[in-house]
Amino acid sequence: MLEKLFGFNPEKASIKTEVFAGITTFLTMAYILAVNPNILSVTGMDKGALFTSTILASVLATLIMAILAKLPFALAPGMGLNAFFAFTVCLSMGYPWQFALTAVLIEGIIFILLTLSNLREMIVNSIPMTLKYAIGVGIGLFIAFIGLQNAGIIVKNNDTLVSLGTITSGTGLLSIVGIIITSVLLIFKVKGALLIGILSTTFIGIPMGITHFTGILSTPPSIGPIFFKFDFSNIFTGEMVIVVF
Known about the structure:
Elements lengths: L1 H5 L8 H15 L2 H9 L6 H23 L11 H12 L4 H20 L2 H8 L2 H23 L2 E4 L3 E4 L5 H18 L5 H12 L33 H7 L1
Antiparallel strand pairs: 1-2
Helix pairs in contact: 3-4, 6-11, 9-10
């Protein structure tokens, strides 16, 4: 059944390995559940609705990848486009978030058409491998920079743009401890190093008063405040073309 539904091959992988890999992948990418709402909420969008929408988009995309493509890839809203949405289109260019949301819808439709026509594959193949590597590194640095900011390891400085924050207590100290634990585990090639590092950091944060347990289940916020809030009045404008491009 697993082989038919997900393409699972018992000769090449084990259920135990796949389960642990799935948990590790989830915990590693779960930062997006907090970061995506934080970034997009600066535009005036409801943070609770963004949180639920991020979850639903991740679940739907991952299930489609698993059942249709039969590939063990977890998908979620990516970093980069959300920053462009919030800081460039809305804050810098001054467009309302409904306008930006419509641009994302149009972009998604265009990508679907490009994929169906195989033109997208041709575009991807035409990108030099060095640039593909550079994109991955750039996004990784961007995520790391946001993580260091949220942890308080680095803070804003008007003279040097960035300076060292408080790392002898609080989230800064806990984050450094977590980085050290995970790094050591990776150096010694311990299986599940990322998962163990994340869980260890979480538990260490409890006596420090940083990790707060508030329960296991709760009703998610409604997506009503942002659901289908598109601005179709500006679809055929030059401004929309520029933003989509």
